[in-house]
Design a protein that fits this description.
CATH class of the largest domain: Alpha Beta
CATH architecture of the largest domain: 3-Layer(aba) Sandwich
Order of helices and strands: HEHEHEHEEHHEHEHEEHHHHHEH
Number of strands: 10
Number of helices: 14
CATH topology of the largest domain: D-Maltodextrin-Binding Protein, domain 2
Number of domains: 2
CATH superfamily of the largest domain: Periplasmic binding protein-like II
Structural class: alpha/beta
Shape: globular
Helix content: 25-40%
Distance between the termini: 42 Å
Mean pLDDT: 92
Strand content: 15-25%
Largest sheet: 5 strands, mixed
Oligomer: single chain
Length: about 350
């Protein structure tokens, strides 16, 4: 598991490794990797460069929607690591290259349950990277163990609550709290969820993503939803932090390695994917970032302490109450984006 100190070291190391995308030199000798913040062991990048001679230009994003916007802006990447629902959207919009699995022999280590997923049914465009669930992180000095998403609307914690800074996750939580599917296309249910989010706006400390590390660690906030792997990070670094899984259920997600349409170095990208799926590398990476691995070979290399942690590897009973995001119709995505803008701007009637 990593700590905030490790995060700072990682940022320094990755910064040292990364030239600007515009100055990446010979495309065949480099690849541009676009990944979530705090979602790779920097030693893995160095090992790949040393073994292959391919330089990695590494940059990060905070949400799937930010990634999508960058791709629409024709920024060139060779590797991206979107989540399930975004992968299916990118496939539908012809924004991903089909992978040549003849160059990715280590795909054989992926567990069967992560092959041919709903977001890529023929397994042509993606290779699973990590998986996890969304949990509630809370400060035990100030907050009792939460059992429901309701606590994110509890006025006694006004100005101490953080909410996700993206519409899909925020609406997902609000919908689950109301007893609806987080993938509903029922406009009335979505409007109800929006009204609840508008009410919540009055008491939140703010909307954040990676900034949650400092906000929770410094006790500016006491409770927040976030991804289990990052929760484990924060808990290790701060003895007063803990995490819980709400009774209403939660989101289960898979992030996967993909090659965007028009990538300049697809061959180098597939070498990177194959390297990332090598059991020793996948295990090293999973242990460092705190997320669960879909890689059978890597799983067998991990310490018992890691694979027995219920946050990292939830039980079948917990997973039975989870739901994965799916790609929604464009009119529903547009509706949520419009409502989210109004919620954030305080324009939605409560």
């Amino acid at each position: 598991m990593k700590s905030i100190a490790k995060i700072l070291i990682a940022v320094i190391m990755i910064t040292a490794l990364v030239p600007a995308l515009s100055g990446c030199g010979d495309d065949r000798e480099s690849i541009n990797v676009f990944n979530w913040g705090e979602f790779i062991d920097p030693d893995v990048i160095k090992m790949f460069e040393d073994e292959t001679g391919i330089r990695v230009n590494y940059t990060t994003y905070a949400t799937n929607e930010e990634l999508y916007a960058k791709l629409q802006g024709n920024v060139n990447y060779d590797i991206i690591i979107p989540s399930d629902y975004m992968i299916s959207r990118l496939i539908a919009e012809d924004m991903l290259e089909k992978l040549d699995f003849g160059n990715i022999s280590n795909f054989s280590y992926i567990k069967d349950e992560y092959k041919n997923p709903d977001y890529d049914t023929a397994n042509e465009y993606s290779a699973p990277y990590m998986w996890g669930i969304v949990v509630l992180i809370y400060n035990t000095k100030h907050v009792p163990t939460p059992t429901s998403w309701d606590i994110l609307w509890d006025e006694q914690y006004a100005d101490k609550i953080i909410m996700f800074d993206n519409s899909r996750d925020a609406f997902g939580i609000s919908l689950l709290r109301l007893g609806y599917s987080l993938n509903t296309t029922n406009e009335n249910e979505i409007e109800q969820a929006a009204i609840e989010l508008a009410k919540q706006r009055e008491i939140v400390h703010g909307y954040f993503m990676d900034e949650i590390f400092n906000k929770m660690g410094g006790e500016e906030a006491w409770i927040a939803p976030y991804y289990a792997g990052d929760a484990l990070y924060m808990i290790e670094d701060n003895p007063y932090l803990s995490a819980a899984i709400p009774a209403e259920g939660t989101n289960w997600f898979v992030d996967a390695l993909c090659v965007p349409k028009g990538a300049r170095n697809k061959e180098g990208a597939e070498k990177f994917i194959n390297f990332m799926l090598r059991p020793d590398i996948a295990a090293m990476n999973s242990e460092y970032i705190g997320y669960a691995t879909p890689n059978r070979g890597a799983y067998e290399l991990l310490d018992e302490e890691i694979i027995s942690d219920p946050l990292a590897y939830p039980s079948a009973a917990i997973l039975a109450k989870t739901e994965m995001f799916v790609h929604l119709p464009e009119n529903i995505n547009d509706m949520k984006d419009r409502l989210w803008t109004d919620i954030r701007g305080g324009l939605l009637a409560r």
